[in-house]
Structures are given as C-alpha cells and as structure tokens.
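pasting for ref
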Amino acid sequence: MKTGICHKLMVSVLALLVLVITNSFAIEKHFCGDNLITSSVFAELEKCSGCLDPDDVTNIIDHCCKDVIDVQEGQDATTAKKIDDLDVGQQVFFVAFGNAFFSLFQPDSKRLENSLHYDPPTISFDLQSCYQIYLI
C-alpha cells in the first residue's frame, strides 16, 4: 500500500516537472524613469499616470516611461534516454540505488511466534531473595 502511494506521488511530481519545464511565460515590467512601477506575469500592466495623460506633451518628448518584456521560453522537445545509453558503471549505480531506495518502503517481515502456546515453568521459590540478588 505504501509503495503504491509513493509511486503515484513520484509519478505526479515528475509529470508536473515536465509540464513546468516545457511551458513558457512572459514577465512584463513598466518603468517610469528608472523606477519599477508595476510588473505582471499573466495580467495586463497598470500604466503610471504620466503615461496615460494624452495632454502631457513632455511625456511624448522625454519618453520617460518604458515597458520591458522578459520572455522565459520552455523546452520545445524533451529527449528520452534509455538505460542502454549509460555506461556499465552508471547502470550498476542506478540499479543498486533503486534497489536500496525501494527496499526502504517494503513492509517488515513478520516473525513467527513459536512461544504462543508455551507455558512457563512454575516457580516454587523466589530465586532473587534466596540468593539475595537485587537490582538497584
């Protein structure tokens, strides 16, 4: 049961990792002068008041406001590697590591209880007080 949950969790994490690596996104930044006013990943940028005023002639002349777009491109193609592409030392390491890692999640073997139907001998006298042996 534990290996099933662990296996499903690991598969989900790897699928999410592939999804994140292959996606691309853009970060938009709006600068007014040298100051960062707003930045956005998915939403529309909010412009500063100087950029929105059509009557302001100095904004057109100075071009103090600028928009910067940083594009983070994802991988276009993922490559699948086979274990045959590795050399023998790497193959031995991966097999040994996998065996040791997955053996951590195996249930402990149950010991056979041979003493279930065993009756202890009857004690006729107290040996500790007879030999005066006491735990302190």
